C-alpha cells in the first residue's frame, strides 16, 4: 500500500454556534464540540484509509477557550500517523472574528480511529509520509501518545511502553 500525505485526509467543517448548542453561560456546550470534532476526524480517517473507520479513543482534548453563542467555528482534522490498522487524527479548532476575519486557535484534540471491514474487524491501512515540519513533529510524537493511550486503557503493560520509558530513563 502506498504511503499518503496528511494533507490528503485534511477535513474542514465550518458551522455556527446556535442557541440549542450552548450551556448556561451561552458558550458552546463541550459535548457538541466533541461531536463536531469526531465527525471531522471520522471523515479524515476515512479519507486516509478509504475504509470504514470507528473512533477507538479520545486521547486528548483541551478546551482552552470558551466559544460564545453566534461564533463561527472551524474544525480542521488531519491524520498525523497511521500504524497497522489504527490512525491518530489531530484536530484544531478555530474561531473567526466576524468583523475582520482574524482566526484564533481555541481548542485542540487528538483522536484514535481504527479502520475495520464489514464485520468490524480491524484492517490494514496505508502509512503516512509527513511533508511539513509540523506534520513531522506530530508524526514523531504519535507513537508515544498511542502507547500512553494503550497503557491507560489497560491494553499495554507499562513495561512494554518503550517510548514512554524513554522519556524518563
Ligand atoms: C476500535 C476497535 C475496532 C478495536 O478493536 P480491538 O479488538 O481492540 O482491536 P485490536 O486490539 O486489534 O486493535 C486494533 C488497533 O487499535 C489500536 N487501539 C485499540 N484500542 C486503542 C486505544 N484505546 N488507544 C489507541 N489505540 C488503540 C490497537 O493498538 C491496534 O492498532 P494497530 O493495529 O494500528 O497496531 C473495537 O474496540 C471497537 O469496535 N470499538 C467500538 C468502536 C465504536 O463503536 N466507536 C464509536 C464510539 S461509541
What would you say this structure looks like, in words?
- This protein has 169 residues and is α+β, with helices and mostly antiparallel strands.
- It has one domain (6-126): Hotdog Thioesterase (Thiol Ester Dehydrase, Chain A, Roll), CATH 3.10.129.10.
- It has 3 helices and 5 strands.
- The protein is globular and about 50 Å long.
- The model has no long low-confidence stretch (mean pLDDT 96).
- Bound molecules: coenzyme A.
- Residues 54-57, 83-86, 112, 114, 116, 120, 122, 146, 149-150, 153, 155 line the site of coenzyme A.
- Residues 7-119 form the HotDog ACOT-type domain.
- Keywords: Hydrolase.
Please describe the structure with a list of short key phrases separated by commas or semicolons:
five-stranded antiparallel sheet, alpha+beta, binds coenzyme A, 32% strand, 169 residues, 3 helices
End-to-end separation: 36 Å
Largest sheet: 5 strands, antiparallel
- Computed over alpha carbons, the radius of gyration is 17 Å
The name of the CATH topology is Thiol Ester Dehydrase, Chain A
Give the strand order of the largest sheet, numbering strands 1, 2, ... along the chain. 1-3-4-5-2
Task: Give the full name of the CATH homologous superfamily.
Answer: Hotdog Thioesterase
CATH architecture label name: Roll
InterPro entries: Cytosol_ACT, HOTDOG_ACOT, HotDog_dom_sf, Thioestr_dom
Family: Belongs to the acyl coenzyme A hydrolase family.
Protein name: Acyl-CoA thioesterase
Keywords: Hydrolase
Ordered list of secondary-structure elements with their pairings:
Elements: E1 11-16, H1 30-49, E2 52-63, E3 72-82, E4 86-96, E5 103-116, H2 133-152, H3 162-168
Antiparallel strand pairs: 1-3, 2-5, 3-4, 4-5
The chain binds coenzyme A (COA).
Residues 54-57, 83-86, 112, 114, 116, 120, 122, 146, 149-150, 153, 155 line the site of coenzyme A.
